[in-house]
Amino acid sequence: MEDKFISFQDYTFQYRAQSEPTLKHINLDIKKGERIVIIGASGSGKSTIAHSLNGLIPFSYPGESTGTLTICGKEVKTLSIFELSQYVGTVLQDTDGQFIGMTVLEDIAFSMENNCVPQDEMIQKTREEAVKVQILEKLDASPHQLSGGQKQRVSLAGILVNNVPILLFDEPLANLDPYAGKKSIELIDQIQKQTDTTVILIEHRLEDALHMGADRIILMEDGAIIADEPPSVLFASEKLKEAGIREPLYITALKYGGCMLEPSMKLEKIQDLLLEEEQKKQMRQWFFYRKKEKKEEEKQVILSVEDIHFGYTEEKENLSHISFTVKEGEMISIVGKNGAGK
Ligand SMILES: Nc1ncnc2c1ncn2[C@@H]1O[C@H](COP(=O)(O)OP(=O)(O)OP(=O)(O)O)[C@@H](O)[C@H]1O
Ligand SMILES: [Mg+2]
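Above: query sequence and magnesium ion SMILES. Below: predicted holo structure tokens.
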């Protein structure tokens, strides 16, 4: 049972509004406590997998399914939406529609209130979960006044109060800036470790998603699973590229540099990479060779900025000592935190 905590067996699903099945012959077993990342092009069926798990299919999106889908050995078809909500908690990309309470506290406590949990216990549990998701100081605020990352944490706390064994995230990073996204993933990682929940994370931003260690990546294409492998095995192959999914940049760089990638090289995180001395040398050579190649064709400077200062008001300078040049045909990015002056 622990190995087939979630089990799709030859599962096919067709939305009533569609003329063809959206999910085709899905076979997928997920163990208790596993961390799964689902990736795939837009429209490949990732959210449809999520809807099948959390009951939106068939309760909100009707259709026909064949094959079986079981959670904890129970066929999902036989469960009510309430029963399913005891197993699966979902955090969506746009959490606004999920808020019910006037304050963060009310929102986190909502499901306990529904289940007639005594007041004292309810407040204690709400505070405990608010600490876990680092939102304690916002308990009296309206959920709509919070930042994207904070809203997501409130949403997560509202799920954690129910001690659900499966946490499902559908593109949780889409609306967050890189810093907030990183913090979100770290929080998911931490909660997974503390509670041994099964985590299913659907995300386009693969490198960010893998900031939380993943046991397996499920790659979807056109409603089917085309790869189900640990990150290091998948990255050593060409499957992501073939499916039109961008690999992490360091993987592409290693491949360009001519390194033969093996799963044993711990490819899942750039900071864990194991490269032989010979491979390091090869990468350095490639890097310096590329640099030289560029230098050779010196291009004309078409924009030159020297020591610019600017302020919208007299009191505050918004730009100080700005100097840079742009050459013909160059492509540049300007990056920086919110309010940095980009
Ligand atoms: N509620 C629905 N009713 C009918 N068809 C739907 C519904 N939701 C999704 N589909 C169809 O199912 C297919 C897969 O959609 P799904 O939302 O699962 O893709 P996805 O992989 O999550 O894409 P994205 O990365 O854009 O979120 C699409 O062709 C879509 O049009
Ligand atoms: Mg989706």
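The chain has a mean pLDDT of 91.
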